[in-house]
Amino acid sequence: MRQELFNLLQSNDLEAARVLLSRYPPEDIAPMLRELPMEERVRALQLLPPEAAVAVSEMLGPDAPGGQAIVPEQTSDDFRQAVKHLLGERHFDMLRRMLIDMNRVDVAHLLEDSSPEERVLLFRLLPKGAAVEVFEQMDSEEQQQLLKGFTDDKTTELISGMSPDDRTRLLDEVPAGVARRLIRLLSPAQRESTLALLGYPESSAGRVMTPDFVDLRASMTVAQSLDRIQRIAPDKETVYYAYVTDAQRHLVGAASLKDLVLARREALVGEIMEPAPKSVSTYTDQEEVARILRDYDLLAVPVVDSEDRLVGIVTYDDVLDIVQEEASEDIYRYGAVPMTERAYFRANPFVRTWRRAPWLMILIGVGYVTGTLIAAQEELLVQAAILAAFIPLLIDTGGNIGAQSSTVVIRGLATGEINHGRAAKTLGSEAFVGLLLAAILGLLTFCLGMVLSEGNVQVAIVVGVTLAAIATLAALVGGGLPFLFRLVRVDPAVASAPLVTTIMDVSGVVLYFVIANALLRL
Question: Which of 1, 182, 248, 450 is the most exposed place for a label (fewest CB within 10 A)?
Fold first, then answer.
């Protein structure tokens, strides 16, 4: 059987190998795999169902090559069922080995998908260092749920081991009473640094930075610098960049680890550092920090206070989280849903309904206004009933063009491609685009008007001219509203598709009947 399995694996006939393995229990499979070469052993383990793979790995032993808990698809439903089975059978040693071998992010996802009782049990199986790393990867809600079931000693162990920026993020999201309790559990030094970060405005660089960075002096040699980095690296967020400060902690330069490794060991840091590196203030908005990291291709950006003293760094991984949160928030606002992605899907249906209902009720009110305007033109519609057939086409086109313009402008403002200094140029460009669309769509609508009105030129002209006017106005409204909101310090994403569509519904109907009254009564 061992030779047959080896031949199937060598010929890459994995389905036949899977069928062969399924005929035998784990206690028969383990001796066979022990005699296989390492590569074939791992491949055979990956063909087994999760429960069998774990059992065979346990039998192979931790010191045997391939004897680690190799389980495929560690986030699959089958794997989660295997974990539930092992918990039910109280195979805690096997589970501990499996969790230790897994990537910390995968463990965090596994815990988040488990029930509260299973989550606590699994988390307690992790050794201290791994537990802190997994805890940092979890969402704040799961973190809070875990903390509720822990003693003060276990809680202190966790939050003391967290990096300062992750600890601050957790304290930001827990209730005030819980935050005060957690802060009291910190050491005096940790409490001081945490309170300092919490003292900065929300969404600022100071709030998301970490004070755990590598700092050097310009007078140090490269050899001294590398020795220092090696000594303090375990407690630092990143070692890829070291920041050079003077005696007053003013930022004077930066040196990459690559430059330090390649330089002569007797060279001075001041000779190889990059002077006056790009930095941000503690009060810089986190979106601006993300833009700087992107534009300057930095792994981390130093954060300085009002006196240009280095107080922390913001790393690229933190910025990725910020960018995702900000993008999700903008998308939700653009859809007139004033919630974050995580908050929305975790909220109950009643909360979701309440958050979405206000805009929809406003739209109903605007629809009523639009209906009133149409009803007021009863006399005109009696004389030319065909005009009513074009109302949906006109107001829908206006809403679509306005939504397109607002989308590109909002995105441009978010990425920094455009700003207030280019507002006039951007609006002029959007207006020109609106005119081109007006010419194209106006001509197309004139032709459609001729067809639907059975050759009534006057009606076709009214529809064509109205569509041209609406297209131009929609481009200006959609492109201008984001700048207006930014000017009054409101998130441009508020200039959402529902808002633009609402404005164009009313203005489109008004334009339509003004033009119709003017042209049909000539």
Answer: 248
